[in-house]
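Quick one:
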Amino acid sequence: MEVKKTYAEEIIKKIKESKSEDSKNIYNIKNNIQDGFVIVKYKKLEIEERELLDGEILMFIPKEFEIMDEELAEIKYPGGDKPDYIYTNEDTTVNVTFSIEEGIINNEEIEEVKDILQKQMERLYPASKIEDSETIKVGEKSISYFSFDVPLLDGDVYNFMFFMEIKGQLLMGTFNSNVYQKKEWRPIIKQMIMTIKENPEKIEESSK
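Output:
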């Protein structure tokens, strides 16, 4: 009879497999969303493929992430800056947001969008260093992204912005968390955005 491995055993296995000098530090466990879970701050988060943006896209995302309460969203994103969709964890400290921008754009223009917005962020936050500025190919789609830390009165926030073309429009997304969780979330969000794709069911509906 096969005995299912416990959560603790899974962690121990990952620690042993790590080649890092700091492999005994749980924060250095190499998370892979294809395992179906990640470990962040000693907590196991199950990962699943979800329909997001009212079913327009598919993406692998932590199971506990849900649409943020509207009243809280108005507080966190005041002044008309609220994204179209905000997915948040249980304590609302980690957020993934999406907005579909008006206008027509093609896949080849995505990197240019990233460069323009990156320069805007450099002007807004001159003391913040731009990191991870890159454009990658996932199938036929380009995904551009960059990250930076924003200094706030109640603590620095890690921001990871990403862009891609969906149905001829610009999908602009942002991941943010406390800067102290940056080391753990940085590789996870990079893996997550590589799973974004248009929902084939929606494509089929629009072609009818």
